[in-house]
Amino acid sequence: MTNHSKFDEERLRSLIRAVPDWPEAGVMFRDITTLLQDPQGMRMVHNTFADRYRDQNITHIGALDARGFLLGAPLADALGLPLVIFRKPGKLPAETISVEYTLEYGKAALEVHKDALTENSRVVLIDDLIATGGTLLAANTLIERLGGKVIEAAAIIDLPALGGSAKLETAGIPYFALTSY
């Protein structure tokens, strides 16, 4: 029996629930909890990412708080790489560096342990989706401050209408998503 299943975008899309008017009127929320409840679907997602990044001279997987952790941990394990987590302020116990960034309606901050990366670290950042791109760009800033480089930002879903993938492109950060809406 093989662990690898062929990627099927139609199947993936069937496992992502659309929730209209959440969290506010006019928003079509793409909910991955239905995907998380499907072991074969998750295996397909994990294997697709692992196959993409295997043999790519990557040194770390960077996972964004919190849904990115669900993808980053198995990916790091599959590739035999360290997992670096990027969290909201006050969640990491050792010395951190942080960056503040702008959201559509306010500001947020992201932190990483100061010793999580070294100069010349080559990182794939992973999250559940690319929306406005703010969190991914903030993580990129932290990685650069520690002397590393983002090789690619990856996600299950890209929402190009929200502009995040265009911002990543403008910043010179390659990105990859399994599907887009």
TrEMBL record:
<comment type="similarity">
    <text>Belongs to the purine/pyrimidine phosphoribosyltransferase family.</text>
</comment>
<keyword id="KW-0660">Purine salvage</keyword>
<dbReference type="GO" id="GO:0003999">
    <property type="term" value="F:adenine phosphoribosyltransferase activity"/>
</dbReference>
<dbReference type="GO" id="GO:0006166">
    <property type="term" value="P:purine ribonucleoside salvage"/>
</dbReference>
<protein>
    <recommendedName>
        <fullName>Adenine phosphoribosyltransferase</fullName>
        <ecNumber>2.4.2.7</ecNumber>
    </recommendedName>
</protein>
<dbReference type="InterPro" id="IPR000836">
    <property type="entry name" value="PRTase_dom"/>
</dbReference>
<keyword id="KW-0808">Transferase</keyword>
<comment type="pathway">
    <text>Purine metabolism; AMP biosynthesis via salvage pathway; AMP from adenine: step 1/1.</text>
</comment>
<dbReference type="GO" id="GO:0044209">
    <property type="term" value="P:AMP salvage"/>
</dbReference>
<dbReference type="GO" id="GO:0005829">
    <property type="term" value="C:cytosol"/>
</dbReference>
<dbReference type="InterPro" id="IPR005764">
    <property type="entry name" value="Ade_phspho_trans"/>
</dbReference>
<feature type="domain" description="Phosphoribosyltransferase">
    <location>
        <begin position="33"/>
        <end position="160"/>
    </location>
</feature>
<dbReference type="Pfam" id="PF00156">
    <property type="entry name" value="Pribosyltran"/>
</dbReference>
<comment type="subunit">
    <text>Homodimer.</text>
</comment>
<keyword id="KW-0328">Glycosyltransferase</keyword>
<comment type="function">
    <text>Catalyzes a salvage reaction resulting in the formation of AMP, that is energically less costly than de novo synthesis.</text>
</comment>
<dbReference type="InterPro" id="IPR029057">
    <property type="entry name" value="PRTase-like"/>
</dbReference>
<keyword id="KW-0963">Cytoplasm</keyword>
<dbReference type="GO" id="GO:0006168">
    <property type="term" value="P:adenine salvage"/>
</dbReference>
<dbReference type="InterPro" id="IPR050120">
    <property type="entry name" value="Adenine_PRTase"/>
</dbReference>
